[in-house]
Automatic annotation (TrEMBL):
InterPro entries: ArsR-like_HTH, HTH_MarR-typ, WH-like_DNA-bd_sf, WH_DNA-bd_sf. GO terms for molecular function: DNA binding; DNA-binding transcription factor activity. This is HTH marR-type domain-containing protein. Residues 30-128 form the HTH marR-type domain. It holds the Pfam family MarR_2. Transmembrane segments: none annotated. PANTHER family: TRANSCRIPTIONAL REGULATOR, MARR, TRANSCRIPTIONAL REPRESSOR OF EMRAB OPERON. It comes from Methanomethylophilus alvi (strain Mx1201). The keyword DNA-binding applies.
Amino acid sequence: MDDDIRMRVKMELPFLVRVLASDAVEKAVEFMGKFGVKRREVRYIMALWGGPMTQKELCETLLLDKANTARAIAVLIENGLVRKDKRGVGRSYKVALTPKGMEVADTMNRFLDQNIDVMCADFPDDVMCNVLNTMETMCTNLDADGSVANNIDFIKGMMSDRLEQGSGPDS
């Protein structure tokens, strides 16, 4: 890599990633506030949009500890957005979005899709594909324990399932 480009990457990349992440999170939190969902609960709703999961699976997918996950799930159950699903293994159970939770998740996904469409409006598909592949490689390079790769696979699988069901981002 050219020294000028290397310096620019070192200076700009962390800032740009933080701006994109902060903007997405702030918009999502503000939007979800209309449904009584707080910042920490947004991630759980989005993860459960892909289907029921055990609390352990949620912890691993979201890279969060058991205590925070248990608290968030309790709040989401109390708010009628999540329910316990008996399809767990042994004594464990899965949690799943209720119809109300699914409606909130679908609404949030449409909202996020609109924001992403605005952000990416001037980019052709091949450029966006290169951006995604580059970011995926960068994240995978930092992935000492395989958790990022597992999450990328989870997201791709979730999106594939949703597109097959006809309820993906463009439905």
